[in-house]
Write a structure and sequence with these properties.
Largest sheet: 8 strands, mixed
Shape: globular
Number of domains: 2
CATH class of the largest domain: Alpha Beta
Distance between the termini: 32 Å
CATH superfamily of the largest domain: P-loop containing nucleotide triphosphate hydrolases
CATH architecture of the largest domain: 3-Layer(aba) Sandwich
Strand content: 15-25%
Number of strands: 17
Strand order of the largest sheet: 1-8-2-7-6-3-5-4
């Protein structure tokens, strides 16, 4: 099976900002990690097809005509050559006149570095306080992380100014004076309307996790309103690990005449993750099984995903009373408190984090070796339908930076078994069954994966899960 490829660079931020990216990944350059064996499909827009000399691939960053400080910044982070996604996407994104791009590419394939490199190549560093690029993300955590990548790749760019446009960070009536703005759509929309952010000279709009941003009603409406406030000729770059068909159709309207790149569907699962499920006798047994897994969670760092904020709080309180050290993070926490909780998790002050889907997308923490789906991701009215995209995003929080990882999904009834079976079918994967009455075997399997040099994805749902 294909191994994970070089991920995006993430080092401490420049300037006075608190580092929002994982220190351990700062040295995880392209020369140290494995290139996956997936193919990248390219679909050129009609506009691109009409050119006499359509752009091809770039075998090296030198071929892209990047500004020298950007080129040196990439080199300093260990990026010796473009990843497969970058070698296809960058020539198209950097072309003049600028063209839109819709890119379906999972985390760990270099997508963040691709759009950050494009942004840094578009801006005029002689105008450091003039907003020129806007990057939108669904959560403050991901926005701060992307800002860290901008500062990492742009570390050698003179006068690079960046601002995180997230709730509570920019005082009322204070002008946004930075070339690169990274934020959430609601806050950015307010800043423009209150005339704190001048959008008139913006050249590039990047939307990360675009499937979620354009599909979710609240964020989708905000992204539409933000776009209406921007220059009509702005270059639009949409990136996401998944693009369901209905979202893709809307994305093509949002970013008209866009070039498109995508990975083959079967390559969307993270191959460095051994995907397992725990056959729980009943819903009420899930908590006790979670506590029994606690020792394995501390081998590295672990994330426990639950369906609701209330469930996250209750599990955290109960585990704390039972003597287990766990943290909880979800949308009910205020911004600064959320920042601190995530920073504590990044630095290892806390090793087990219970959260909702707020952290399912894009967050990179290199030490995460286990993800537990305490609740299977579901969607639709009454949570009646399995949510393959969210499952994929959740498990992608482990197995990062060329390392190995384990995901364990709790199955407690027929509905859960059917949902997980459908997810496995959608992704073309097999799942390893774990039994709660054989902890020696469970520990052996999990330890073997975490300590191995290469994780093998394998796991077939068993009929025994249909309790």
């Amino acid at each position: 099976m294909a191994e994970p490829q070089a991920t995006d660079p993430t080092t401490a931020n420049a300037g006075d900002e608190t580092p929002q990216v994982d220190e351990a990944s700062a040295n995880a350059g392209a020369s140290m990690l494995h290139e996956p064996e997936y193919d990248v499909e390219v679909q050129l827009s009609d506009l691109q097809k009409d050119t006499e000399h359509p752009l091809g691939s770039a075998a090296s960053f030198d071929q892209l005509g990047l500004p020298l400080p950007v080129l040196r910044g990439l080199s300093s982070l260990g990026f010796q050559k473009p990843s497969k996604v970058q070698e296809k996407a960058l020539p198209l994104m950097l072309a003049n006149p600028p063209q839109n791009m819709i890119a379906q590419s999972q985390s760990g394939t270099g997508k963040t570095a691709a759009f950050v490199t494009t942004v840094l190549s578009r801006i005029d560093f002689d105008k450091p306080e003039q907003p020129q690029a806007l990057l939108l993300a669904p959560s403050r955590e991901l926005a701060r992380q992307i800002q860290g990548v901008v500062q990492s790749i742009g570390r050698l760019c003179d006068n690079l100014q960046t601002v995180a446009a997230i709730k509570g960070d920019i005082p009322r009536n204070e002008q946004v004076k930075a070339a690169v703005i990274v934020g959430t759509p609601g806050t950015v929309m307010d800043l423009i309307r209150f005339r704190q952010l001048d959008p008139s000279q913006l050249k590039v709009l990047v939307i990360d996790e675009a499937d979620n941003m354009l599909d979710q009603q609240g964020l989708g409406d905000q992204c539409i309103k933000v776009k209406r406030l921007l220059p009509k000729d702005i270059q639009i770059l949409l990136f996401s690990a998944t693009f369901p068909d209905k979202v893709m159709k809307y994305a093509q309207t949002y970013a008209p005449n866009a070039n498109q790149i995508k990975l083959q569907r079967q390559e969307l699962t993270v191959k460095g993750i051994s995907q397992m499920y725990m056959d729980c006798p009943s819903e009420s047994n899930k908590y006790d099984i979670l506590c029994q897994l606690y020792g394995l969670m501390n081998v590295g760092s672990s994330i426990i995903f639950v369906r609701t904020r209330e469930s996250a709080d209750k599990i955290q309180e109960r585990m704390a009373k039972d003597g287990h050290r766990v943290s909880v993070l979800h949308g009910a926490y205020e911004g600064k408190e959320r920042d601190q909780l995530l920073d504590d998790f990044r630095t290892g002050k806390s090793k087990v984090l219970i959260t909702t889907n707020v952290l399912a997308r894009g967050i990179d923490v290199s030490t995460v070796s286990m993800v537990i789906n305490y609740d299977i991701p579901m969607k639709g009215p009454g949570d009646q339908m399995h949510d393959t995209e969210t499952y994929l995003h959740r498990i992608g929080r482990t197995g990062r930076f060329g390392r190995v990882g384990v995901s364990i999904t709790f199955v407690a009834d027929k509905k859960g078994f059917n949902a997980l079976s459908n997810i496995a079918k959608d992704l073309g994967i097999e799942l390893v069954q774990l039994l709660p009455n054989d902890w020696d075997e469970t520990e052996r399997q999990v330890h073997r994966v975490i300590k191995s040099s290469r994780a093998q994805a394998g796991f077939v749902p068993s009929a025994q899960a249909t309790a």
